[in-house]
Amino acid sequence: MMKTLCFTLGLLLLTACCCNAMPEALKFNTAPGNCCFNFFTHKIPVKRVSNITKTHSSCQNPAFIVHTIKGIPICYRETFQWARDIYSQQYYTVGSGQQL
């Protein structure tokens, strides 16, 4: 009788510990956040660009995500020269106080 009670309490304690730890484990999502599957093929005016980022390295299609001043994300292939130039311009002007 005592063995069964100890086993049951131990199992209950283990279950409670695992259930409490689950939400913490879900905070560490390793999946990529933004990947591109459709690509824009035309330049937009540079004055409409607020930011540009690269997609996560685990995305199937390497790309740049251009964020407009209206908050619209536009995907460009990593090989699209205009996007490469904008990305380089942003990278090299960071900290200089210049805008895109």
From TrEMBL:
It is found in: Secreted. GO terms for molecular function: chemokine activity. Keywords: Cytokine, Secreted, Signal. Residues 1-21 form the signal peptide. InterPro entries: Chemokine_b/g/d, Chemokine_IL8-like_dom, Interleukin_8-like_sf. Its main location: secreted. SMART domains: SCY. Residues 32-90 form the Chemokine interleukin-8-like domain. GO terms for biological process: immune response. One of its GO terms (cellular component) is extracellular space. This is Chemokine interleukin-8-like domain-containing protein. It comes from Perca fluviatilis. The lineage of its organism: Eukaryota, Metazoa, Chordata, Craniata, Vertebrata.
